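Input chain follows. Return structure tokens only.
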Amino acid sequence: MKRFLTLALCTLLMACTGEQNIYREYECYFVFDTFLHPLPCQLTATLGNLGQYVKIETRVEQGVRHLTTTRNYDNATEDIRLTTDRESRLNYALGANNCIIVGVSSYDNVLVAYEGQCSNCLKELGGRRYPLVWQNNGNQLYCNKCKRSYDVNNGVVANGTPGIELYRYKAALDGGILRVWN
């Protein structure tokens, strides 16, 4: 019984610590069905490859929601049309300025989702105009405003002035359904 209580307490503490790292300043809600968008869809492909990430942005054109994804290792972009009934009924919110970054960390094989804006600039300067761009063969994200680079696999500042790590969102892959939220 003592062992069970210790395990339960450790689990509770880890859950609380994880919750503290979730960015809540701007709403994030994203759902993507990989069964509706099979390979070679680059978002679907990214979810099965360590160290690969995509920036995801959304827009609506002529009543159809589109996702634009940009891969980290080659900057290739793809336009994904969300045309099913279920997809068209969802309301998407992609953080501070309509961009999230999703991938699987090559350090610990964990699905991660980051805010697409520089966390230090958001915190220090306010506003929402601090997009991150791929750098160092897609292993880092760079902010042109503060000149910091972040390691994409763990979110910490890799180069530049020390600061906070990238803001994170919750991420889960349930069967073939990717969910990102806060």
